Predict the 3D structure of the following.
Amino acid sequence: MTLVAVDWGTSSLRGALLDDAGRVVEERAAPRGILTVAAGGFPALFDELFGDWMRAAPGTRALISGMAGSRQGWIEAPYCPCPAGLADVAAHVVAVEPGRIAMVPGLSAENDGVPDVMRGEEVQLFGAMALTGRRDGVFVLPGTHNKWVRVAAGRIAGFRTFMTGEFYALLATHSILARTIDADAPLDEAAFRQGVACAGHGHGLLHHAFGARTLSLFGRMDAASLASYLSGLLIGEELRTQTWDADDGEVVLIGSPPLTRRYALALDARGIASRALGAEATWAGLRALHELHRADPSAASGPSGRA
Amino acid sequence: MTLVAVDWGTSSLRGALLDDAGRVVEERAAPRGILTVAAGGFPALFDELFGDWMRAAPGTRALISGMAGSRQGWIEAPYCPCPAGLADVAAHVVAVEPGRIAMVPGLSAENDGVPDVMRGEEVQLFGAMALTGRRDGVFVLPGTHNKWVRVAAGRIAGFRTFMTGEFYALLATHSILARTIDADAPLDEAAFRQGVACAGHGHGLLHHAFGARTLSLFGRMDAASLASYLSGLLIGEELRTQTWDADDGEVVLIGSPPLTRRYALALDARGIASRALGAEATWAGLRALHELHRADPSAASGPSGRA
């Protein structure tokens, strides 16, 4: 049975056709995130994008993760609370078209009395566990809203979101720093490491960010290097707040190569080893959920099938 | 001899006419910050705004502080390095029109190899010292770019800038939080204190800011309270990074009442007493510099009078 695996995000989506052995036959991407879809437009758009894959073999199923399962998406798949293993998430999968299309729920966590959420990353985490065999440790998913995740005994024990990607865009585009930063410059590793080291002084982002202004004002750093310095300040600030266990082993990074590379550099500066995975984690995660779901289809529920 | 005291900032300016005893005779404000003044337009604008005060009594002098002394201002008054006392700053005053109009320099500091700067706040600090008699302790000047200042033996020993006001505006206007925050809502003290307390958990602004999103997502806080919560998170994050000496005494806050009130609340939540001063600190500081300068006019230098 083939699987149409879809990661449907806010601004874009990616899909893969997986054969019965879980191999990627074909991949597609489109700038059709949920914000671009009018109310009621999801079925037609899905058919336009993936209808040929769905009809190519009898019994083909689709499993969708990401913001398409949010209140503003195709169908709401309520958050599954942490700690959560693969079976817990599979039990919260919501049928979109029973026996044909299903939606993966996001995860919620509670930190110091404040809720936290993810949608889509849970699938990447289970995929990364499957691909690496790691069942414990720290997994990091860089992006607009980064997730730092603690995995224990193969389950997602808890996580925290960091608005690092969004803060970088805000500062580089709308703040006083925008005047003197070339946000599109390629990575300057030395300036990036300098930013990571500066964040380690611990006076907080509100203070250290102003240094990107004054270094420019005093002619000590050019516009291209300042972008990397600011990126290092932000990622270094994330690292500053993490706690590590002696037996955590290497950090597993999941994301696009340009981003995971920055996290690998920042972790290395703190003496922490890491390895990186990309889109393959998404497909492996959707495949693992699909397999579990196929083994026990009664676990899936309709939109109103759960309390 | 009367003094025309002017605090000329980036977006606006304020002026006061002080009599020979230093009493405020009249105050003026105008939305004519340096960004609104075309190159070469400063002398005419100054005359338009303050010419009547300058001509009312023979020998009237003007002393200007703030961004008008920056490279983009009327005349550049190079930064005076910290530690700096009133006499050091007076010695760096630059003549705009010799014997008539003079410009106060800003201050620079060096923190962990990164420069920091202020322009205008140094005058408020000397004014606050004169008004309170305090010669040691922590002085805080809230604003777009807040200054936390260490004063020792009547001199400005060092300081750090925090982009707290600008971060609040960025997050409330341009971030994902903007959708669910009523940035103009009046202060909700309970929500503000909750934000201050949350920042104290120490996971950093990049993480805690996301809580303003999820608290809304889960219906746990309304748009008006979220604005105060975010403000508390930001000011609480500033406080988290400060160090205090046992004998620091109460913190001196200098700024507008709505802002200093928030800092007083946040400090109180940490058990730290404070007192607040407003615009009177600016006039007292310019007056003190003027008196010192008048006592030793040779200390003032022309635009090219210094190495």
